[in-house]
Every structure is written in structure tokens, then in C-alpha cells.
Write a structure and sequence with these properties.
Number of helices: 5
Structural class: alpha+beta
Shape: flat
Largest sheet: 2 strands, antiparallel
Number of strands: 2
Helix content: 40-55%
Strand order of the largest sheet: 1-2
Low-confidence stretches: 116-125
Order of helices and strands: HHHHEEH
Mean pLDDT: 78
């Protein structure tokens, strides 16, 4: 049997209803059906990734999102490293692991990441404070009741 690992969806299920989490995520008695919001979100993520990575234009119903991927494409052209749908995983001791490693305790995706080699946190204290606040919010979300 595959070792259990947390994800944002599993964490949401637990926080909404621990019994649902048990039956859906642990016992696997009921597959969770895709809903309209999930389907739309997956389509948007895929379209954005293809736009940023391959230059495939967004479908007409998503054109209002153009400024955001355009910004990332411009960043790439300016020498930034831009990654989409980045898979991240960590062990229970919060050490990075590969996504499907047996030691993985939490898995998640980061939709986009951009970074310039000369952009270091110690050179940008304002950015360091924002990232620290974001990390605290993430830690708060992971705190189980």
C-alpha cells in the first residue's frame, strides 16, 4: 500500500470534515467527483502553462488573463528563470523530498516561480519580510485542529 502524504486537497477535506477525509482520502471508499470549479481551474492552469512554456495563446474565454502570463514571458525574455506547475514535496521533518519519494509527507504544486540569479533575499529585506509572512500563513494553514 502506498504511504499517505498530505496535499492541499486532503488538508481541505480534513479541515471541512474529518469523516469525509477518512472515507475519501484514507479508506478510498468514495472517489471525489470533479466539479465545475475544479475543471475550470485545471483548464486555466493548463492554458497558462502552455502559454508561458510554449507560446500557445490563451483561448478566447481566458483572454482577460493575458496580462499575467505576458508578464512572466517578459520576465523570461529579460533573463529570469520561469517555471510552471512546479512540483514540491517535503518529509515530516520539513526537508525537501522528491514528489513520490517514500519519505514524502506533504505534496503540492506551485503554479509559477520566477527568479533572477542576482535577486537574493538578503539584498531585498522588503521581499524577505513578505516571503516570511507568506511562509507563516502556509504554516498556519498546515496546522491541524
Amino acid at each position: 500500500m502506498k504511504k499517505f502524504a498530505w496535499s492541499w486537497s486532503r488538508l481541505k477535506n480534513y479541515r471541512v470534515c474529518p469523516k469525509k477525509h477518512y472515507h475519501v482520502d484514507l479508506a478510498k471508499e468514495f472517489p471525489e467527483p470533479d466539479n465545475e470549479v475544479l475543471i475550470w481551474g485545471n483548464q486555466v492552469h493548463k492554458a497558462m502553462s502552455e502559454y508561458i512554456d510554449k507560446g500557445v495563446k490563451l483561448p478566447p474565454m481566458m483572454e482577460h488573463y493575458d496580462p499575467w502570463p505576458n508578464m512572466l514571458v517578459s520576465a523570461r525574455e529579460a533573463g529570469w528563470t520561469v517555471k510552471t506547475e512546479l512540483k514540491l514535496a517535503m518529509s515530516e521533518s520539513h526537508k525537501p523530498t522528491s514528489f513520490f519519494d517514500n519519505a514524502t509527507w506533504f505534496r503540492g504544486y506551485r503554479a509559477n516561480q520566477e527568479r533572477r540569479a542576482v535577486d537574493r533575499l538578503e539584498d531585498r529585506p522588503d521581499q524577505a519580510r513578505r516571503r516570511a509572512a507568506g511562509a507563516q500563513r502556509s504554516a498556519d494553514l498546515l496546522a491541524l485542529p
